[in-house]
Amino acid sequence: MTEIRVEKLSTDEIDQAEVRERWEILAEEHQNTNQFDNYSSTLYKDPETGRIYYYEDQINEYSLWEVEEDDLLGNTKKDYEAFVSEQVSEWISNSDDPIMESIAWGHRDPDSIKADPEYTGECKVLVIGNYYGYQPIQWARDESGWEEITFDSAAQAQEWIDEEEDGIYYLSHNEAGRPDYYIIEA
């Protein structure tokens, strides 16, 4: 990863609406897993000074750093997007659950990591909700809702999915349809 030489400007709440109104967005990534308060990572340029800033919004913790131009690969849209993607990738790799984080940030498609239906090792079921405007994700949980379920095989996980999809499904408020299920090697 490119080392970022930054001067941390603030850890207090930053008025993002004011920043978005005044500064130009060069690149941005965000999660889309909650109805409100999704994490975001944005590279801005202050048109008055020409300075570039990297901003992380972690819901109730905000950080803003000044980025030097030579920390970027170049000054094209693609270079800015690569910079933000690299920062998010670092975030993902340091998380407690890199698979879930990579999907939440859109760095991985769940279809690309599905277990083979014949897989006989431990696996989990990723549940992606289908709501208007966002897609909450979580691992399948037991009836209490607290414990993640680990299955002994993809076939066992598929049986659990079949039971979930059987019968009438009642939508929650703002829910557009049944969740999608993906069997993932544990």
Tell me the layout of helices and strands.
Blueprint: E1 6-10, H1 16-22, E2 24-30, E3 40-45, E4 52-57, E5 62-67, H2 77-93, H3 98-104, E6 123-131, E7 137-139, H4 154-165, E8 175-185
Task: Please describe what this structure looks like.
The protein is built from four helices and eight strands; from the N terminus they run βαββββααββαβ. The two termini are 28 Å apart. It folds into two domains: 6-104, no CATH class; 110-185, no CATH class. The strands form two sheets. Strands 1-5-4-3-2 form a five-stranded antiparallel sheet. The longest helix has 17 residues, at 77-93. It is of the alpha+beta class and 186 residues long.
Descriptive labels:
8 strands; 186 residues; elongated; alpha+beta; three-stranded antiparallel β-sheet; 4 helices; five-stranded antiparallel β-sheet
Distance between the termini: 28 Å
Main β-sheet, in a few words? 5 strands, antiparallel
The count of β-strands is: 8
As a percent range, the share of helical residues equals: 10-25%
Name the poorly predicted regions. 1-11
Work out the radius of gyration. 20 Å
How many structural domains in the coordinates? 2
Backbone shape: elongated
Give the integer mean of the pLDDT values. 86
Number of helical elements: 4
Strand content: 25-35%
- Spatially, the strands of the biggest sheet line up as 1-5-4-3-2
Task: Give helix and strand order, one letter per element, not per position.
Answer: EHEEEEHHEEHE
Structural class: alpha+beta
What is the subunit organization of this protein? single chain
